[in-house]
Amino acid sequence: MTTTKSSAAEMATALAAGTTTSVELTQLHYDRIAQVDEDVHAFLYLDKEGALEQAAAVDAKRQSGEELGPLAGIPLALKDVLAQKGVPTTCGSKMLEGWRPPYDATVVTRLKEAGVVILGKTNMDEFAMGSSTENSAYGPTHNPWDLTRIPGGSGGGSAAALAAFEAPLAIGTDTGGSIRQPAAVTGTVGVKPTYGGVSRYGLIAFSSSLDQAGPCARTVLDAALLHEVIAGHDERDSTSINAPVPQVVKAAKKLDVKGMKIGVVKELQGEGFQAGVLDRFHDGLDALVSAGAELVEVSCPTFDYALAAYYLIAPSECSSNLARFDSMRYGIRVGDNGERSAEEVMKLTRHKGFGPEVKRRIILGTYALSSGYYDAYYGSAQKVRTLLMRDFANAFAQADVLVSPTAPTTAFKIGEQVDDPLAMYLNDIATIPVNMAGIGGMSLPCGLAQEDGLPVGFQIMSPAMRDDLMYQVGGTLEAALLAKWGAPILDKAPVLAAR
Amino acid sequence: MALNYDEAVAKYEPTLGLEVHVELNTKSKMFCSCSTEFGGEPNTQTCPVCLGLPGALPVVNGKAIESTILIGLALNCSIAPFSRFARKNYFYPDMPKNFQTSQYDEPICVNGYLDVEIETEEGPKQFRVEIERVHMEEDTGKSLHVGGATGRIHGAEYSLLDYNRAGIPLVEIVTKIVGGTGKYAPQVARAYVTELRDILRSLGVSDVKMEQGSMRCDVNLSLAPIGSGSLGTRSETKNVNSLRSVERAVIGEVIRQSNRLEAGERIVQETRHFLEESGQTRPGRSKEQAEDYRYFPEPDLVPVVPESAWIEELRATLPERPSVRRARLKSEWSVPDKEMTSLVNAGLLDAVEETIAFGAEPTRARSWWLGEISRLANEREVDPTSLITPSQVAEVISLIQSGELTDKLARQVVEGVIAGEGTPSEVIAKRGLKVVSDDGALMLAIEAAIAAQPETAERIRGGNIPAAGALIGAVMKATGGQADAAKVRELLLKHLGQFEKATGE
Hints:
Largest sheet of chain A: 11 strands, mixed
Helix content of chain A: 25-40%
Radius of gyration of chain B: 30 Å
Shape of chain A: globular
Number of strands of chain A: 11
Low-confidence stretches of chain A: none
CATH superfamily of chain A: Amidase signature (AS) domain
Distance between the termini of chain B: 63 Å
Low-confidence stretches of chain B: none
Helix content of chain B: 25-40%
Number of helices of chain A: 16
Number of domains of chain A: 1
Strand content of chain A: 5-15%
Strand order of the largest sheet of chain B: 2-5-6-9-1-10-11-12-13
Mean pLDDT of chain A: 97
Order of helices and strands of chain A: HHEHEHEHEHEEHHEHEHHHHEHHEEH
Strand content of chain B: 15-25%
Oligomer: heterodimer
Structural class of chain A: alpha/beta
């Protein structure tokens, strides 16, 4: 029987066999959301009318025998950073409260064309800046494993929706780990495709050279199915890659890593990593070795500078990208009493509309780009970026994929790191190098840490435009661990009280 | 005692720098597919990209790159194998993203030159104006400040914003410093902008209408005592919007700056606004505390990497340089200077050249285009070349030459063509416009005219040849203008026994 715990692939089979309908599935998920989302707070907005309409349209097409894509009729949760025509899109910020975009992001267009049913918009750190979803102007999202803990960020809403079975699929965006770290701390799967693999058109920019939308799911195969729906060249995005999409579904189904070389990154373990995280990571390595892979240790010395360089480049770009939020054309407007000048109204609006973390990064970036500081800060950071790419190139010369723990710790308590930005930034220490180099990265669950019984993420990194390799390794590892555990990891999560 | 211009340039050496902004005439904007047409209802030519809506991304207009490369090649620049766009960050309501996407330290064209010729006391002299760079950027929207006294943002009650212009492709052409002009600085500046305008027009990349703002000039000027070998502090005069104003702005600044220097005051590095009425400038914002635009490479765009084969293809399409072509045509057609200037200013060189190519005699081709056709075009407020084709004009001229049309009839034929009545021969057929060349019919009219004005006829017989005009006029009137006046004159004078005398004079 199809339940909210089924995978998207299983739901697709049921839809094809006619044992359920998309309207039924969609309603089933809205029922689940009604039961648990008051506690989880994964969603900022539910578009029931639009979703049920799309579901009914897909059902009608299926009825009439029309050829449908593999995910037609499957519900999905959309991170609130992607523009969806006519649907409130806030980026988790007061600044955009009430704004309904007049256009669809390319990712949204592709989802709609594939018959995917968009349930609603998920919570996130304001403008995707954060690692806990506590920076949302609309309140934090709670981790379904422990409601007192964070679900990761910035895409905590999307990850929590999956872990709480409110949706089988979700879209996230990843600038420094915002898909992978939430996946790690919620026991789900998240993929940051190669930069340029998925169009950024309609993705409200935080840091243009780092942002990338990607699939979130509960299984590697589901992520691959979603990946193939949203990926591919888009002429509206100059940085989108004009090349065939890697065959990630085929790769996810291979379940074979014999002879593959797995590079273990020396710099991404040890100090700063929780013992339980490292133990589960090693369980993952063992499983890969048992499946016939060969481990090699690789060194990427520049990784030590990745975080510092990231916190110059991302804020620099954000200081410019977020300049457009000035109340002149859309979003909130503060203090326009007919007396004040446009400049004063802009200032008041930006003061009121942005939260403290966003302001911190705008100030940081403005400073880093200032004349006299540009070379020392932005310029040096770009050089580090080049060195990081060189490190990856060397490492990939020795191994097919690279691996590390996704995040240094399991989910921490809500409020625990709010006042310590540097501690918060360290959550992304292992995920940031992937964005800086523009390559692909995946996180999938590799067990529960012994200290706290919370999920641990295993990160697989693949060379640019070889996203298929991480799916191949991820699919194999997932199958090996499932065989060992006997049940999906989310079965071990506490049952959420239904309201 | 204040210095006048001649006194100023006797003491001080001017140094020029010219920045020219040109709106390209591409059909779509720099980074989106919105129309660039001038004069649309406010905010009707916009989309998520040029409105800078959250999430929207720019894509470079390939045609704009092509036009810019053509400009660079025409100005003898090197075309950079790799260039980039940058973001120029500052807040202003008419700029949708609060940054302007513009090329900055990596422009597409660099290191060119343009030779211009000016008249000096020693005769024509050539100056080489070196080009520093040619780069691409996007235009901003337009603000209309309502309710204030000045039309500026300060003091206005409210402002209206029109984003139709936001994202229109602009090219900026920047010279290196132009020195060594001495007192001829105003003429060199004007000759440069004129030659540049003509080149851009011949390339077909812009309307180059200074009065409509599709070409705008900023004049940088500084003075240093002659022989000092140093450079003074410069001012930047904005929005000098005609060729004449370019010249006047230079003169105005030379006088203003020299008098400040004479008075022991320093020149402030600032932006100044040109005042059309007085030819003087007034101060704008000071640039002494330069605004920090926090430029950085535009991460939403990939670098511009034109293939060298493409550049060479474009180079092969470059038209003959306007000044070279003008000199050639002037000598081929033996045109007086003044008429050549009129032809150039009216943009009629192409039309005349084509008309001649269709077999028309050069003098007649010029006078028809500059005269009757331009007059009709002015009445209708349209371009002369939109009214009639060179081949039609050539046909009319050949009919005049063969005597089948008089000038007066030809004007009617042209009117008919413009009115859409068909080709010249169709108009002639429809309107029945044929020269009355039957001597018998003309003689009847001549005799009638003599009968009506016997005293005039008597004076002619008495040798007063100019008096024939009145009788010729009467005959022309009687034949509805369809007679050849020369023919009428000949028959009349022969009839009165004065033809030999008239032709013998």
